[in-house]
Amino acid sequence: MAVTELFQNLPSRDVEHLLGTAKHITLPRGAVLFALGDTADSLYIVERGHLALTLPMKVLGREENILIEQRHAGQALGWSALIPPHKFTLTATAPFDAEVLALERQVMLDYFQSEPEAGYVVARNVAEIVGQRLQVFQVMWLREMQRVVEAHTGRTAIAS
User: Fold this and answer.
1) Would you state the pLDDT for residue 139?
2) What CATH number is given for 5-153 in this structure?
3) Of 54, 101, 114, 120, which residue has the fewest beta carbons closer than 10 angstroms?
4) Rounded to a whole number, what is the largest CA-CA distance in the chain?
């Protein structure tokens, strides 16, 4: 696997150490890796396949899983494991067979305690991943706000 976004700019000895602590998980089609609100004890890296990150919502009176984004090989998910209150903010499902590496929070934190430079690099990378997620939500929110404004005014806003 190519270096994951989580480990960008991290010395290879740190990457090797962290990956050496990871547990391999195979997910059959339709398996839920974690659900919204679950305790986030591990951070994951997609090895093979992809995972859908969804937000469960009530739509027309029934529960729907709204796709927020997909994470592919080399990409990380479950960053809530490193950010309090350590609760997953979305649900991760394997639409097809997939494989992930699970990195336990406490194992990572213990390593970062002894190797603070590695912790700093990973924290910056996590911040970038979180920033990308916020951009996704901002675009979704702006689209919805545009629909609301259009519905109230009865006219179509100019797309930017």
Assistant:
1) 78
2) 2.60.120.10
3) 114
4) 60
